[in-house]
Amino acid sequence: MLKFLMLNLVMMSFVKSWSTIQMSMLAASFLVLMNLNHDFYFFNLGGGLGVDGLSYVLVALSVWVVMLMIYASQGVKKLKNFYPEFLFMNLLLMLVLLLTFCSVSYLMFYISFESALIPMLVLILGWGYQPERIQAGIYMLFYTLFASLPLLVSLLSLYGAQSSLSMLLPLKGGSGLLATKGLWYFCTVFAFMVKLPMYLFHLWLPKAHVEAPVAGSMILAGVLLKLGGYGLIRVLSVFPNENKMFSWFWLSVGVLGGLIVSVMCLRQVDMKSLIAYSSVAHMGLVLGGLATSSLWGWTGAVVIMIGHGLCSSGLFCLANVVYERLGSRSLLIGKGLLNFMPSLGVWWFLLAVGNIAAPPTLNLLGEISLIMSLVSWDKAMMVSVGLLSFFSAVYTLYMYSLSQHGTYLNSLYSCCSGKLSEYFVLLMHSAPLNVIFLKGSMFLSG
C-alpha cells in the first residue's frame, strides 16, 4: 500500500490541476488511516525501505497534514502565485518525509532527513510573507546544517566499527575511552536536538514560522519537528550507557528550557510567534520523556508528537484565517474576534483546549505518560513539570482570551466569518485529536 502511495505521489507531481490533487490526497490520507490498526514490525517494502508501528503512525500524520496544507492554501491558487510549483514542492516534501520514516538504513535516513530541508526552504523563500523570509531561511539552513555534519561523521565512524548501518541489526556505540564515546554520542544526537528543537538552539524555529506561508507553518509544526524525536528514538538505542549517563542534562534542558520558553510566550503579541514558542515548550517535554529511556516516556513522547502535530497545525491554520481577514497577526489588533467571526470561536476553543492537554484530547494521554516517566525518574521533577503544565495553560488562555474577547476595531466589522474549506480543514484537525484518544490503548500497548 505504501509503494502504491509513493508511486501515486510521483504521478501526482506531474498533474497541475489543484482540485485533482486535492481529491487524490484526501483519498490517499484515508487509505493510510485504514491500515493504522495493523500491528507489524519492520514490514519489508524492498529497496532499503521498511515500516514498523512507529514509522507508520508518522507516515499517516505526514500524509494527513500535507493533505490539509493543500486545502488550507487556497489563497495561492486564487492569486495564481505559481501554484503548480507550489503543489510540486508540497508533494516533493511529502515524498521525502515518507522516505525518511520508511528508511531501514541509518545512512538513507540521514540523506532523507537532510533532504527535507530543501523543499521547506523553497516554500519559505518562494511563498513567504515578508522580506525577512530570506533571513529566516538562512537561520534555518545554517542551524540545521551546522548540526548535521557531525551526525554524518558519526554514522560513517559507526559503519567503520560495525560494518553495517541497518536499523534491523543491534548496533553498539564506539569502544575506547569514555571521553571518545561521550563525544561520539553528542555528535550523533546533536542534529536531532536542533531539529526537535532543543532550548538554546531553537531561535531558527520562530523566525521560520513567522515568515513561512500557512502550508510551511503547518508542515513545520505538524511533521518536521517530529523528525527530531523520531531520529532520537532510532539512535538512542545505539548508545544506552551514554544516554543513561547524560540523561540528567537532557532532562534539565528540556523541562527547564520549556519552562523559560513558556514564560516568553506571555510576552508575544504575534499569533504565529506565540504558537511557535509553545511548540518549543511542548518539544522540551518530549525531550525529557525520551531521555528517561522508559516505556512510559517513549510512549508519551510519541503520543505528544502526534497530538501536537494536529493541534499546532490547526492553530497555525486559524492564525492564517485571521491574517487573511485583518492583514495582521497582532493580538493587539485582532481583538474581539467573537464579535464578527463567531462561527470560528468554537474551533479556537477546541484547539486551545488541545494545546492545554485537557480531556478528551490526545495530548492529555501523552502528558499523563510523560509526567509519570519524569516523576518516576526523580520526584523533584514534580515542581518543574507542574510549573510547565501551569504556564502551558496560562499562555494558551492568554492567546484565546486576548484574541476572542475585547473591543474590536470598527474598521474590521465587515469581515467574512468563515469559508467551507476552512471549516473542513479545522474539522480534520480537531476530529482526530479528540477521537484517537478513545483508542489510546493502541499507543499504550507495548
Automatic annotation (TrEMBL):
Short name of any one Pfam family annotated for the protein: Proton_antipo_M
Example GO molecular function: NADH dehydrogenase activity
Family the entry assigns: Belongs to the complex I subunit 4 family.
Gene that specifies this protein: nad4
Record's bilayer topology term: Multi-pass membrane protein
Places the protein is found: Mitochondrion membrane
Protein name listed in UniProt: NADH-ubiquinone oxidoreductase chain 4
Keyword Chloroplast belongs to the record: no
EC number: 7.1.1.2
Catalyses which reaction(s): a ubiquinone + NADH + 5 H(+)(in) = a ubiquinol + NAD(+) + 4 H(+)(out)
Stored InterPro entries: NADH4_N, NADH_UbQ_OxRdtase, ND/Mrp_TM
Functional note: Core subunit of the mitochondrial membrane respiratory chain NADH dehydrogenase (Complex I) which catalyzes electron transfer from NADH through the respiratory chain, using ubiquinone as an electron acceptor. Essential for the catalytic activity and assembly of complex I.
Record key words, sorted: Electron transport, Membrane, Mitochondrion, NAD, Respiratory chain, Signal, Translocase, Transmembrane, Transmembrane helix, Transport, Ubiquinone
Membrane-traversing stretches: 53-71, 83-101, 107-129, 141-162, 182-205, 212-233, 245-267, 274-296, 302-323, 344-362, 382-402, 423-444
Signal peptide limits: 1-17
Highest classification ranks of the organism: Eukaryota, Metazoa, Ecdysozoa, Arthropoda, Crustacea
All copies of domain NADH:quinone oxidoreductase/Mrp antiporter transmembrane, residue ranges: 105-389
A GO biological-process term: electron transport coupled proton transport
EC class (word): translocase
Positions of the NADH:ubiquinone oxidoreductase chain 4 N-terminal domain: 1-100
GO CC, alphabetical: mitochondrial membrane
